[in-house]
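Structure in, sequence out. Go:
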């Protein structure tokens, strides 16, 4: 924040205290204009109180007067024409102001229209690339401005984003991230699951689970952008994540740290983008964050300190919260409270600083910089204890994942049932069927064991080993694989045991049998092999169907070309491509995510120290 902005904040408060209205006489006369003499006299009165020069005070008064008159004119135009005035502040990724201007639009118009008007001002051809943020929400294109709470004389933060080195616009990058996150979450390959801080799996109802995973996926990508200091991209992803989180039970959200951290990071982006126009939303989010922290960590964080000690790494998050609270208080001109809060944040920051030599020593020992920094903070700079702390945490995480009870498979199983419309009791995981059959067990026994254990692989194996006779006695009536369907699947290149298992398990439903076969493939390489083979068959069958009198054939060609067979081949090809795309989406999603699951606690504190010093300097001045 600049000294000029500080002067405006203090001067505005002083004028409000004295009930001085710069848009009224004697400071402004209708049809005449601003009174230079009256403003000169006022600046002489106020400048000694504010410890600034009379000329600086007068310049600030003129700016405040101009802003007030502009708002009055906007109000008059709104009353006469119904057109609302919006003050647009278009920023770059680091908060630099690329453009400031006004735009007018009726509140009954759609958000898309406002986007178009702003795009015209910015000379952009794609209005969709304009992202307007107001009151902590990204403007929805297909909803009216009124329904989204927009009002006359409102300020808007606008993010457009410039092309990066690859020529990829911010808009397209955000769209790709959204698609990837949805594909990763909806995949049945269990790419992601919910865990607590110790690696234990959390189970939720399917739809709520999906909303939470989508929100967390977008949040993680936002944090990756924030680590690169692309704060515009980060803010858009955080606000998208916030919208997804809204599909979860509010009581559950307020019981987990992730939602608190999301709100904290949104406010951090506001600050880094120098966006004080979102002050009311920032206040609301910090209050929410503090409430969740208090619920999780106890009053004055007593529960946290009792469990993890007074030097726990979570203190960095608490320090950032205190810092942001101090900044908000400053902009509300509550300077004494701001000073007190910033001093608390400063004391915490000093305690959290890590000795550079100790950090280098642990890195030289082969530890990750983030692990080393967190461990040193937790042990108050004791290198030996820091090494022990890192090793103990690694062992806890490994044990938690080894002892997990497959509840993550349960979550994905229920999602798959909803997607496929299958009876919950009949669904079995295709890859588990194939794995157990490869051990020599009969398909019917394998399926029954998996159904009884709700797809728990270890307990199914135990049933097959110790209770196979009991399983056999209670087998439901089986449906034999249809020989013609079996022949077709064999002709398409699927192995006989897998094809038979797929048909019998799905009761000869060819579409579900194909899904079963594709999802039973072990890796991306096998899927690529299927895609290549189906592509060859498609090409050759089309050639045969369009070449009259041809009797030639190859080993990769169907013996009898029929429309139904060609449709089946094309269906398998499309399904296999969808499966492979889910792998590609996961790779893109995972590309810039940290391996350290405590990365959210690893704040270097350099930016925090810079911001703290900036505001303390203004307060002391």
């Amino acid at each position: 924040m600049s000294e000029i902005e500080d002067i405006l904040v203090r001067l505005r408060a002083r004028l409000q205290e004295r009930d001085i209205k710069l848009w009224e006489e004697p400071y402004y006369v209708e049809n005449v204009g601003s009174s230079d003499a009256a403003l000169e006299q006022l600046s002489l009165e106020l400048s000694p109180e504010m410890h600034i020069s009379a000329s600086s005070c007068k310049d600030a008064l003129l700016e405040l007067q101009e802003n007030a008159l502009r708002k009055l004119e906007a109000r008059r135009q709104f009353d006469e024409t119904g057109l609302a005035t919006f003050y647009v502040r278009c920023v770059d990724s680091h908060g630099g102001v690329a453009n400031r201007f006004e735009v007018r639009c009726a509140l009954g118009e759609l958000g898309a229209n406002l986007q178009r008007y702003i795009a015209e001002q910015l000379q952009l051809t794609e209005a969709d690339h304009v992202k307007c943020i107001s009151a902590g929400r990204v403007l929805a294109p297909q909803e009216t401005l009124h329904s989204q709470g927009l009002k006359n004389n409102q300020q808007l933060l606008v993010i457009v984003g410039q092309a990066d080195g690859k020529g990829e616009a911010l808009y397209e990058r955000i769209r790709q991230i959204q698609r990837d996150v949805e594909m990763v979450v909806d995949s049945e390959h269990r790419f992601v699951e919910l865990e607590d801080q110790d690696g234990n799996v959390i189970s939720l109802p399917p739809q709520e689970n999906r909303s939470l995973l989508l929100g967390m996926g977008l949040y993680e990508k936002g944090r990756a952008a924030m680590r690169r200091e692309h704060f515009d991209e980060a803010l858009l992803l955080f606000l998208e994540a916030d919208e997804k989180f809204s599909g979860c039970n509010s009581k559950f959200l307020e019981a987990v740290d992730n939602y608190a951290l999301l709100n904290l990071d949104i406010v951090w982006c506001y600050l880094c983008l120098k966006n004080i126009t979102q002050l009311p939303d920032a206040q609301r989010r910090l209050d929410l964050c503090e409430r969740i922290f208090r619920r999780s960590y106890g009053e004055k964080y007593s529960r946290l300190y009792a469990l993890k000690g007074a030097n726990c790494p979570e203190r960095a998050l608490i320090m950032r919260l205190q810092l942001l609270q101090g900044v908000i208080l400053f902009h509300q001109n509550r300077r004494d409270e701001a000073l007190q809060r910033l001093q608390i944040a400063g004391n915490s920051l000093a305690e959290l600083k890590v000795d550079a030599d100790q950090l280098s020593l642990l890195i030289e020992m082969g530890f990750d910089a983030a692990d080393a920094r967190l461990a040193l903070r937790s042990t108050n700079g004791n290198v030996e204890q820091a090494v022990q702390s890192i090793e103990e945490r690694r062992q806890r995480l490994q044990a938690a994942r080894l002892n997990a009870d497959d509840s993550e498979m349960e979550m994905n199983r229920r999602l798959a049932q909803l997607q496929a419309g299958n009876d919950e009791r009949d669904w079995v995981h295709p890859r588990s069927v194939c794995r157990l059959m490869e051990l020599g067990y009969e398909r019917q026994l394998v399926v029954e064991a998996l159904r009884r254990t709700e797809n728990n692989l270890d307990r199914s194996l135990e049933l097959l080993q110790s209770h196979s006779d009991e399983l056999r006695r209670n087998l439901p009536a089986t449906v034999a694989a249809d020989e013609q369907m079996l022949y077709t699947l064999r002709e398409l290149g699927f192995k006989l045991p897998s094809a038979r298992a797929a048909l019998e398990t799905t009761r000869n439903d060819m579409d579900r049998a194909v899904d079963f076969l594709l999802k039973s493939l072990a890796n991306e390489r096998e899927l690529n092999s299927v895609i290549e083979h189906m592509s060859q068959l498609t090409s050759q069958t089309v050639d045969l169907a369009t070449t009259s009198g041809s009797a030639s054939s190859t080993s990769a060609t169907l013996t009898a070309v029929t429309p139904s067979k060609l449709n089946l081949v094309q269906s398998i090809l499309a399904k296999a491509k969808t499966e492979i795309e889910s792998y590609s989406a996961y790779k893109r999603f995972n590309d810039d995510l940290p391996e350290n699951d405590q990365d959210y606690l690893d704040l270097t504190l350099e930016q925090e120290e810079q911001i703290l010093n900036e505001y303390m300097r203004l307060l002391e001045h």
